[in-house]
């Protein structure tokens, strides 16, 4: 294996340890293995057809399946050698799918001579569209979704733990009606829960085709016109764990893949928004960060503890979303019935997933290090009593004061006021003593509405 220090991409270099869980789904070896799986299962499905003379015993079927179930780097190297240099009696194919076909031929069990049935009636795209979807589905369901759900669970725990911690909100960057830190984390937990569900749904909806060179089953029908090849294809594709695309050209329309990429981009946007907000809370000292022993925050400023996890996540999410947007747009177009430009593009799906995975890990690491500075939040609230203007004018409106908004605006807009200023206003109001006392009980830290209760809605 290439030394990570010599890798062209940081995904296989600096971040190799973080992206390695995707190797079984995103590497060239993984694509070879998935292609072998499709070819082997297709061969076995043909043997189950009464119309064909092909017979494969249970023992032979098990040995064929071991070609992909016991897949190794050495197997991948053989496939690559067939493609690039030639292997045994096979000349170099310069064709990756044909190399897989020959590999399966070379690994036929003893007593089986099914070379003419391997890849029977298929076009390369019949194999590739299924292989790519099996890999994308596995990568999302086995690697990315667990990470997203873990972040969502962390946010939910933070929301519940800090549901009663009052915090000054900011709209347009300016002081606004207070909230609680827990409620704000609940907003992100709920958003991530919804977008993660869309990712899961999109992965479950991936569908494949097996309809030949122009999507007409022409070769299959020419060989065996009495076989219901549409029913055969549907059963074969669904047995692989995918949905079925009944209408296609040579290319399986990639609207399903585009939907998956868009769904991931939506979840990433939630995390990107979270990263930006947490970064700002750290800069405001609303959140403290636990320093890791031995780490350096700055090469010149020894005191620094920087929010590097959230910054790294932000960068990787932005790169991932750029790639996902490109993929979603590109894979849904193909000249007439087929062109090959999407082949190299689809090889980069794993790169987009890798940037997602790095970002998810960094966000989770960052969340584990932050702790609310409740005293800072409280001091900020208590030094910004003007945010009570909303509550004051609303209560006065309730009492029939049509000029309440204007009265409070004149006192507070663009000004720094104190609670004493408000109390002086209350003493001059023509209101019942009960209303005056109600107004005097208002405090910035207590003016949070039902923020704490809203945390209970995180699962809706």
From TrEMBL:
Catalytic activity reported: (2S)-2-[5-amino-1-(5-phospho-beta-D-ribosyl)imidazole-4-carboxamido]succinate = 5-amino-1-(5-phospho-beta-D-ribosyl)imidazole-4-carboxamide + fumarate; N(6)-(1,2-dicarboxyethyl)-AMP = fumarate + AMP
PROSITE patterns according to UniProt: FUMARATE_LYASES
Listed GO MF terms: N6-(1,2-dicarboxyethyl)AMP AMP-lyase (fumarate-forming) activity
Catalytic activity, EC: 4.3.2.2
Superkingdom classification of source: Archaea
Subunit and interaction comment: Homotetramer. Residues from neighboring subunits contribute catalytic and substrate-binding residues to each active site.
Name used for this protein in its record: Adenylosuccinate lyase
Organism taxonomic ancestry: Archaea, Methanobacteriati, Methanobacteriota, Stenosarchaea group, Halobacteria
Gene: purB
């Amino acid at each position: 294996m290439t030394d990570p220090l010599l890798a062209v991409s940081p995904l296989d270099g600096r971040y190799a340890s973080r992206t390695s869980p995707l190797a079984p789904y995103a590497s060239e070896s993984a694509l070879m293995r998935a292609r072998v799986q499709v070819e082997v299962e297709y061969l076995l499905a043909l043997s189950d057809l009464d119309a064909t003379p092909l017979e494969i015993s249970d023992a032979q079927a098990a040995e064929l399946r071991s070609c992909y179930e016991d897949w190794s780097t050495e197997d991948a190297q053989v496939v690559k050698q067939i493609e690039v240099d030639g292997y045994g009696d096979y000349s170099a194919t310069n064709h990756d799918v044909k190399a897989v076909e020959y590999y399966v031929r070379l690994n036929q069990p003893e007593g089986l001579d099914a070379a003419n049935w391997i890849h029977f009636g298929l076009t390369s795209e019949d194999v590739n569209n299924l292989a790519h979807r099996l890999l994308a589905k596995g990568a999302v369901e086995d690697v990315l979704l667990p990470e997203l759900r873990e972040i969502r669970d962390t946010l939910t725990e933070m929301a519940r733990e800090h549901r009663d911690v009052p915090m000054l909100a900011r709209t347009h960057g300016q002081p606004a009606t207070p909230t609680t830190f827990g409620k704000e984390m609940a907003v992100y937990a709920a958003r991530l829960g919804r977008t993660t569900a869309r990712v899961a749904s999109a992965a479950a909806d991936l569908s494949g085709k097996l309809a030949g060179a122009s999507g007409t089953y022409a070769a299959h029908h020419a060989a065996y016109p009495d076989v219901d090849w549409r029913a055969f294809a549907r059963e074969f594709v669904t047995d692989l764990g995918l949905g079925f695309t009944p209408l296609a050209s040579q290319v399986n329309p990639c609207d399903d893949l585009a939907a998956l990429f868009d769904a991931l981009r939506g979840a990433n946007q939630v995390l990107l928004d979270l990263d930006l907000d947490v970064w700002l809370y750290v800069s405001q000292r609303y959140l403290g960060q636990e320093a890791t022993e031995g780490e350096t925050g700055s090469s010149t400023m020894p005191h620094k503890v920087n929010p590097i996890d959230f910054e790294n996540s932000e960068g990787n999410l932005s790169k991932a979303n750029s790639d996902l947007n490109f993929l979603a747009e590109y894979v849904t177009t193909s000249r007439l019935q087929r062109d090959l430009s999407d082949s190299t593009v689809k090889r980069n799906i794993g790169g987009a997933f890798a940037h997602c995975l790095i970002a998810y890990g960094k966000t989770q690491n960052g969340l584990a290090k932050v702790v609310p500075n409740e005293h800072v939040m409280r001091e900020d609230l208590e030094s910004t009593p003007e945010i009570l203007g909303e509550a004051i004018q609303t209560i006065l409106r309730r009492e029939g004061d049509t000029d309440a908004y204007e009265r409070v605006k004149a006192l507070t807009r663009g000004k720094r006021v104190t609670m004493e200023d408000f109390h002086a206003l209350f003493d001059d109001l023509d209101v019942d003593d009960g209303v005056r006392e109600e107004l005097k009980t208002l405090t910035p830290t207590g003016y949070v509405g039902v923020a704490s209760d809203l945390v209970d809605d995180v699962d809706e």
